[in-house]
Amino acid sequence: MGSIRTRTLVLVLGLLATSMAAISWKSYSDAQHEIEELFDAQLAQTARLLEGMVDRDMTPSARESLQQTLNQASSAREAKRPGHPYESKVAFQVLDDRAGIVLQSASATADLFARLVSTLAADLPPQVAQPVGAPPTVAASRLVGYHNVPIDTHRWRVFVLQDVRDASWIVVGEREDVRGELVGKIALRSLLPDVIGLPLLAVLMWVAIGWSLRPLKQMAVLIKARNPDNLAPLVIGRLPQELEPMVAALNRLLQQLNALLEREKRFLADAAHELRTPLAVLRIHAQNALDAPDPADRAESLRQLVRGVDRSTRLVAQLLTLARLEPNAVELGVETLDLHVFIRNELAEIIPLALERGQELTFVADETGDYRIQADRTSFAVLLQNLVGNAIQYTPEHGRLRVTLQTAPHSLTLHVQDSGPGVPDAMKGRLFERFLRGDTGTGAGAGLGLSIVQRVVELHGGTITLGDAELGGLDVRVDLPRQHHRDRSGLE
Q: Known catalysed reaction(s) (predicted)?
């Protein structure tokens, strides 16, 4: 696309040149019109002066004497006495009522009037009244006034006046190049400053635009000079208003990148911290199985190895789930769920884990209630699996678990209760911390389940609280609005 500086300069100069051309053309047209008016007025004035000079009662000898005087004046001009070159481009004739030449200037051709008449005869319709000596197709009234007549290689602007006293004709003409030359000189002098000033103006505008774009260039240099590992917000001095949104957007992007990297670092640190011990235990069990001479000991080591693999698998799955539910890292696919049907189907998949431990898992809900809710199916399945899975792990064998679903006009409430040992009040506030584990007796907990549940509840705009269950253990209560609202992180 080229540089902003070049594009701006080309655009501004193009608009300026177009405007100047339009203004110059308008000025040229107005000047041409005014000059035409001025010269036409001079032609009319000259004709009337001649009308007053040539007396109708003038004797032939007096007219001859006046013509000789005009010829002598013309000879003086040809002798390079003081005068003007345009004199030869101005002519006049005085004709009698029969179109005979009475008086004329040296620059006038003998057939000036005849050519005028023939030109008009070719263009005008037949008329009734005819001038003496004119073709029958040209009316006298049409001869009077201004006309453009081609004579030899030039066009002449002619003014014709008829003396009403004796019906004589006065013809005053002027070559059109006199006017054109004057108009051209006026136009040239008016355009010359523009032609000379436009390149100078382009240089000045180039410098001015460069100075205006200097803050943008400085910002680009600052960004280019930054270390790739430096994700701190840009700190730039005074900025033009146009650059402030750009800097704000860049700083917001840097913050998001920084948060993303911090999340990845935290995930790697959590994974390294939590996987170190399980992997070491797995190695010990595998080594014991290899070294055990007794088949019973070898079988026990292999069973411990399987349990360790299961625990590591669960830990990795929870770490990935927690990372996926981090702020700005998840986009929920919200849909309308019938939570009653959904929970029943999910519990059908989880109940074998409870039966394996001889536990009783029940689901309590009013069959006639309205349990529709706006929620993300996948993340809500993770929530339910973690809550019920934790309850199964922390409940002794042959214990009881109860999942209760209650409905209200604008919200739903989910209770997951167990008959386990419960949690002291002092510890309930810390159960949502990552990697905080209680004593399950199985060693399978990773301390991430409630952290995952809390994040899912937050994404759905709900709340989660811990209390004491009627069964004697822990009661986890989740309140969810029916309509999904945008999370504070800006996600849906």
A: ATP + protein L-histidine = ADP + protein N-phospho-L-histidine
Burial class (CB in 10 A: 0-12, 13-18, 19+), 225: exposed
pLDDT in tens, 249-303: 888 888 888 877 776 776 666 566 556 656 776 777 788 788 888 888 888 878 8
Instruction: Report how far apart, in Å, the C-alpha atoms of 185 and of each of 13, 26, 35, 173, 180 are.
Output: 26, 16, 12, 22, 9
The first and second tokens of residue 319, run together, are 């770490």
Degrees to nearest 5, angle at CA 421 with 419 and 427 = 125
Query: Which one, of 201, 157, 161, lies nearest residue 183 by Cα?
Result: 157
Closest CA to 161 of 142, 149, 145: 145
Q: What is the pLDDT confidence band of residue 487, given thresholds at 50, 70 and 90?
A: very low
Is the pTM of the predicted complex or chain greater than 0.85? no
DSSP state of 395: S
On whether the CB atoms of residues 387 and 456 are closer than 8 A, the answer is no
Contact 41, 249 (CB under 8 A): no
Nearest to 397 by CA among 354, 362, 361: 354
Please name which of 376, 385, 321 lies closest in space to residue 351, comparing C-alpha atoms. Answer: 385
Q: For residue 91, how many other CB atoms are within 10 A of its CB?
A: 21
- 165: CB partners within 8 A, 6+ apart: 56
State the amino acid at position 53 in one-letter form. M
* Residue 26 burial class via C-beta count within 10 angstroms: exposed 0-12, middle 13-18, buried 19 and up: exposed
In total, the chain counts a number of residues equal to: 492
Please name every residue paired with 42 in a beta bridge, in sequence order, or none if there are none: none
Pairing of strands 411-418, 400-407: antiparallel
Close Cβ partners of 10 (under 8 Å, ≥ 6 residues apart):
none
Q: Are the beta carbons of 398 and 358 closer than 8 angstroms? A: yes
d(CA 345, CA 327): 29
| CA 21/CA 13 separation, integer angstroms | 12
The DSSP 8-state label assigned to residue 358 in this structure reads: T
Which structural domains are found in the chain, ordered by start?
4-185 (3.30.450.20), 228-324 (1.10.287), 331-481 (3.30.565.10)
8 A C-beta contact, residue 102 and residue 163: no
Q: Which residues pair with 478 in a beta bridge?
A: 414, 464
pLDDT single digits (tens) 379-430 = 787 788 778 888 888 888 889 999 999 888 888 899 998 888 888 777 766 6
Angle separating helix axes 176-212 and 4-53, nearest 10 degrees: 160
Best CA proximity match to 332, nearest among 449, 463, 489: 489
Cβ count near 396 (within 10 Å) = 15
